[in-house]
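Protocol step 6 of 9: fold each sequence in the batch and record its structure tokens directly after the sequence line. For illustration, a two-sequence batch is reproduced in full.

Sequence one:
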Amino acid sequence: MHRPVLVTAATVLPVLVDDVKLALRVDGSDLDADLDRLIRSAVAHYEGWSGVLGISLVEQTWRQDFDRFEQRMPLPVGPVTEIVSVTYRNAAGSESTVDDSNYALKQDAGGRFFVRFINDFSTPSDLYEEAAVSIEYKAGWPLGEDDVSTVPADIKTAIILFVQKHVDEAARENSAMLDRIERDLASKYRLHTV
């Protein structure tokens, strides 16, 4: 299994600048650029392959490459909502798509997502030597009405606390307590490694 690749980034942030301003009781637009930057920093801290939660927050598309087919193929960045495609390259480099009737998206008791191929799926034997199999999938919470993020409130609150610790003097003084609260809010969404 190779490192996952972000194909299409999220189109919106899970928390808006106005949400943070409301929590901080800030009026005006003087801090808008700083708050936007800090929100993006918080999102980068939490999400993606290298984020502390290892998840996608707002829906985005990822690709996971493998050297060969297995009956069960892990998708490390979740929550996975849809398999877009499963493709493979043969030794000559020609790409083919696996029909979606041959696999299903599954989730185990630990919250890990994977593609499970049906028992009688006949795996191609003439595969390209490296990263021959690619699974493209959507992960993250979808957008709701009016393109508003449906990311859970706990994660949104953790992002706001992350920003607050960098802007608010009182929050900086209580950063140890806020760190613990932020961690408690977000940690239940951490994906367990495969």
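Sequence two, same batch, same settings:
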Amino acid sequence: MNGLLCYCRQGFEPELAGELSERAARVGIAGYARTERDSSVVMFFSEDAIPLDHALPFSQLIFARQKLRLLAELRGLNPADRIAPMLEALADPAFEKMRFGELVMEHPDSDAGKPFAGLARSLGNALRPALRKAGVLTAKDNPSLPRLHVCLLAGDHALLARSVAADSAPWPLGIPRLRMHADAPSRSALKLEEALLVLLTDEERKKILREGMRAADLGAAPGGWTWVLTRHGLRVQSVDNGPLRQHVLDSGLVEHLRADGFAWQPQHPLDWMVCDMVEQPRRVAERMATWLREGWCRHAIFNLKLPMKKRWQETQLCLDLFAQQAQKPLTVRAKQLYHDREEITVLAMQAGRS
């Protein structure tokens, strides 16, 4: 089976299906997506010999929270014994050399899938020893080996898939579980925390997110993104005509500038600019490109609020517009994060800069 299993935000299945189909076509792969609205799950299949997990790297997918290689689809499972069919599927000669370092039990992050959380846990507790006895799963978790994922779509319907650390998210369902801090001025702080975690590598965070760096937060009120930056020791110019929470100002790292975030520009180049303004996505993309083109910042994180229709098409248009108008080499990464809603988050870094 040459197929992928991907998870996404509920309601964005058409966007992910369109993205997978178009990206596959760009590299010469004919395939088709299969999904159901509000399922949070998209499968993509191809009869081409090129392995899809190599041709469609996870780092380039915007609407996928997780990307797995699909191994088998099991329907009509008997509630009295769901384990035997799974062991039988994994005994297929095509998988005979596969060994897994961890079992990840999952269910779709959807209204229909969440009730299967308890079943997934209890089935996992029974499946792990059976897999170890069969020699499919190592005695102890081994992060150097692929992970085996079992996704329960229903009590009698499961998907078996595999992932490798370099080409997938490390969290079940691709969802980093971040806790809302008591001092955070707003829930939007979680969006920037997740962006810094997901879009930057450990090495990049150490290199380009350092204490003493200078940043601007456009449309900062009430201060959620500013607060996140100050927790990393950055000095922040927070630009908004609205008020910031007092404890954000009391950090001593924040200068509140009452101005229009779309008109304001810094007097000196900054290390970072972040922006979560509610504006038309093309207007945001153009303004963010200006910041990078003019050298007002070296790195940026910004959100693009998507329309209700043609969201994949609008995403492509905005990212192309941004790249064209920035007029310089950039590393650009984009994701619809777990804490995003009708939006995507974009990271742009000047090539070769730290």
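Proceed to step 7 once all outputs are recorded. Observation for sequence two: The domain at 189-350 is CATH 3.40.50.150 (Rossmann fold).
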